[in-house]
Amino acid sequence: MDEILAEFIAETLETLDALSGEVVAWEMDPTDRSRLDAFFRFFHTVKGSCGFLNLPRFERLAHAAEDVLAAIRRGDRSADPATVSAVLAVMDRIGALARSAGAGVSAGIAEAEDDGLLDALNLASHGFEIFAPACAPDPAPSVPPADGEDLPADAPRRAGSGAPRSIRLPLALIDQLMNGISDMVLARNDLARRMRDHGVDPELESSFERLSANVADLRDMISKTRMQRIDRLYAAIPRMVRDLSRELGKKVALELDGGDVEMDREMVEMVLDPLTHIVRNALDHGIERPAERRAAGKDETGTLRLVARQSGNQIMVEIRDDGRGINRAALVEKAIAARLCTAAQAALMAEAEQLALVFHPGLSTAEQVTAVSGRGVGMDVVRANVEQIGGVIAIDSQAGRGTTITLRVPLTLTIIPGLIIRSGAHFFAMPRGNVVELLHDNSAMVAIEQVGGARIATIRGERHSMIALEDVLGITRAADQSGPRTLMVIRSSGGRPYVLCVESVESNEELVIRPASPPVTAAGLFAGMTLPDNGQPMLLLDAAGIAQVACLPVREADGHAFAPSATGAAEARVETVQALIYRERDGRQRLIPLSVVDRVEDLAAAQIVRTGDGAFARIEDALAPALNADGELGPTIKALRLHDGHSQFCYLIDDVLDIIAAPARLDIALSGGRIAGLVMVGDTQYEMIDPFAIFAEAAGTAAARATRPIRCRIADADDPWMRNILAPLLAQAGHDVSIGEGSDTAPDVILRGETGAPLPDASAPVLTLSANEAGAAGIYRYDRAGLLAAISRAARSAA
Amino acid sequence: MTDTLFLFATIAGTPIAVRATEIEAVVRLGEIVPIPLVPPHVRGLAALRSRVLTVIDMEAQIIPGACGAAPAGLAIVAQIAGHSYAFCVDALSDICHAGAGVQPLHGRVDPAWAPFVGGLVEHDGRGHLLVTLAAFAATPACTPRAA
User: Fold this and answer.
1) Which chain B positions have a beta carbon within 8 Å of A531's beta carbon?
2) Same domain, A634 and A523
C-alpha cells in the first residue's frame, strides 16, 4: 500500500507542478475551456485515487472542487475571481497535504481548517449546493490527523527535504536498459569464451573478472528497477470486489496478503488479467448469496483470500474462496456432452483431472457455463495467458467448501536458470523450473517398459509417459552413446508430468532468454533462444510444446491422446481400439474394449451379495450381476462397471493397469469362453475379453434372479418398522411391496417379524426378520445385504 | 537520398536489389546451428557477436528443395519486427544509388518470385529484382505460394 501511496503522491505533486504554470493563465482568463478541463481532470483524478487509497481528507477537498468546476463547465456558474481563488486554495492545500504525507509527517494543518476552504468554495457558489461526500469520518492511517500543538518543531523543514526523491521514467527506457544489459551479459559471456580459448595472462583475467562482477551487479540492479511489489497487482482488486459483490448482492470479505512480494513489472502486467478474471469468477460463481450461505450453515459473508508468496524463482499467487466449489459431476457431464471425453475416460480420471476440465476451451462458451454452474468463463484463456509467461495454473475445489486456484509464475521473464541438454549434435536449453528431477536410465529407481509403442517410465511407482527428445525433434540419435541416457521428469504447464529422455545434461547456467523469431516459434517446440557461455546459439525448449507435439496424454483426455505419436504415428494407420489393460483376480493381465467400460469403481465387500448361482453387486440399491465374485474378497474390490447401453453389470478385477490403443483385429481368434482371442501389443500378447460372451453370461445371471420384480408381502401390517423402514427399502431395491392381506396377486416372498402372528397357510416362502442381531429365529433385520439376498433366494426357490 | 540507395546481390543466380533502409549490416556468418522441425528456408541460428540471428536461406524460399547450394557465408543482417535475421546471399556486387529508383516490373515474373518482388531496379545496365526481406522471413504458410 505504501508504494501506491507514494506513487499517488508523486503523481499528484507532478501534476500540480505542471498545473502551477496554468494557474496564473487561468486566473487571467477563467473562461479558458482547455485550462478548466485540465483542472477538472486533476481534481477528478485525485478524488478517484483517494477514494481507493482511503484518504478521506483529500477526497473531500477534491470532490468539492470538482463539483464547482463541473458547475462551471456546465455553465451553471461563472468562474468569478472569488471562485478561482477558492479552487486554487484547495489545490494548494492538496499540494501541502501531499507533500507532508509523502514525507511521512502530519501536515500541521488541522482538518478543521479545510472547512474554511470548502466554505470559501461554497460562499463563492452563490447558493450552489455542494454535496458533501459521504465518506467515512475516520482519517486514513497514512495521513494521521493533524494535531497542531504536538507538532515537532522541525516537521515543516523535514517535510521539505524528506519528500520522496524519485523520478519517473518512461517504461520504454527501462526496457531499453534491460535489453542493453542483456546484450552486455551476452557480450561478456562471449568474451569469457574467447579468453578461455586463447589463454590469456592472469592480469588480464583478473581485470576481466572485475568487469564481469560489475556487469553482474549492474544486471541485478537493472533487474530491480523492473521489480514491482505485488501490491500493484492487488491495487484494483478491493474496488472490483466491492463493486461486483454489491452488484451481485453478495457479501464478501477480501483478504490480501503478501503484497510486499516483488516481481518483474512485465510479469505483473501479464498476471493482472488472469488474476482479475479468477477473482471475478470467484465472486460470480463461487461465493453464494447470503441466504444460500446461511442455508448451508456458513457465515453470511464469504471470504476471498489472495496470498502471494515467493518460492525460489517463482511467485505463487493463491486465490481462495469459501464458496460453493465446482460441481464436478456437472462439469464432467458437460465435458461428455461436448465430446471432450467419453464417460469411460471421465470415470478413469482423477478428481484433479476432472476439475481441470474447466480449463478446456470447449467448456467456456457462455450458455454452457451457466448450465455447468461452475467456473469456465474463459478459464482456457486464463490458462493460456499464464502458460504464455511460463507459469502454471492449478485448481482445487471441494463441493460446498470453496475453490482454490494457484498461479505459479516465474519471477522474471528475461533471465532464467536453465539446463543445457545435449541431443546428438544439438544442444538445447530447458528452463530449470520445468525440471522436477534428473535420473539416469540405468538407475534402480526407474523401470522402463514398452507397451503398444508407448514407452512408460515408472519412477518410484509412479508411471510417466516417456519420450525421447530426438524422436520429437526428428533428429538422429548419437549411435555411439556409451554411458546411460538421462531422464528428465518435466512438469509442463497444463499437462501431466512426463519423462523426457535426452543424451545428457551438460551444464546448468543462468540464461538470458531472447524471444525466438516467428519462423522458429512456429515449430511449437521452442520458447526462446539464448547464447550461453559456450558461444553456440541455443534454443530454449518449450516443455508444454514438446508434450503437445508428442501428443502425450494431457488432462483433457481426448480419443487419440493416449496414443503416443512419436512412434505411434506410424502405427496409427493400423486400425486400433481403445482398450483397458487390467489384472484379473487370478493375476492374469487381460484387455477389455474401453467402449463397454462405463467406469472403474471400488466396491466394499459388503456390497457383493452371493446367491446360489451367481453374485450380485448392490449399486445404488439396485442389484447388478457381478462376475468373478468367487473366492475370498478383500475389504474393497475394484470393479469395472460394464454397460451395453441397456443393462450393466460389475466385473470384479484386481486392478486397472493402463489404457492403450490395441489393434482392432485379433491376431488369433479363439471361440468359446470369455476370451475373444489374442492380440499383440508391443512385445506382449494379451487375451482380449469378448464383450458379447460376458454380457451374455451376466444376462444369464440376471435372468436367473428374476424376470419380474419380486413381490414381497409384509405380513404384519401393524408393525411400524415393517411399514416404515422395510417397505421403502424393498421398493427401492426394485421389489413390489404389498402390506397385509389386501393384495390379490400371490406374493413370491412373505416377510414377517419375530413377534408377529405365525402364518400356518403360507402360499410362499416366509422370511422371519429378527430385531436382535444374535437372534436365531431369522435374518437380522438391519443386515441389508443378507436380507436382500435372502429375498431373492427365496423368490427363486419359490419360482 | 537513402530512398534510392540499394544493395545489389545475387541469389539463385538472379540479380536482386534490397533497399538499404532495410539493411543493418552485411556480415560473414560463422557456424550455423541447425534447428530441427522448422521449414527448410530457416537454416538455423548464428551468433553475431553477442546476438543470435535467425538465418534465412532465401534460395530455399524461391526454389523449394534447393537447400542453399553455396555454403552460407555472406549474409545480410536485418531487424524485422524486433527480431534479428541473417539472409544468405550468393554474392554481393555493390551498394550504390540507383538514380532512376524503383521501376515497375514488366513481363511476368516467375510465380516463385512473385511474393517477394516489388519492382525492378536498374544497376550496371542490368535489371535487379527489388525484394523485401520481411517477405522472406515469413513462414511459407503466410505467403500465397504455400498453396
Assistant:
1) 47, 50-52
2) no
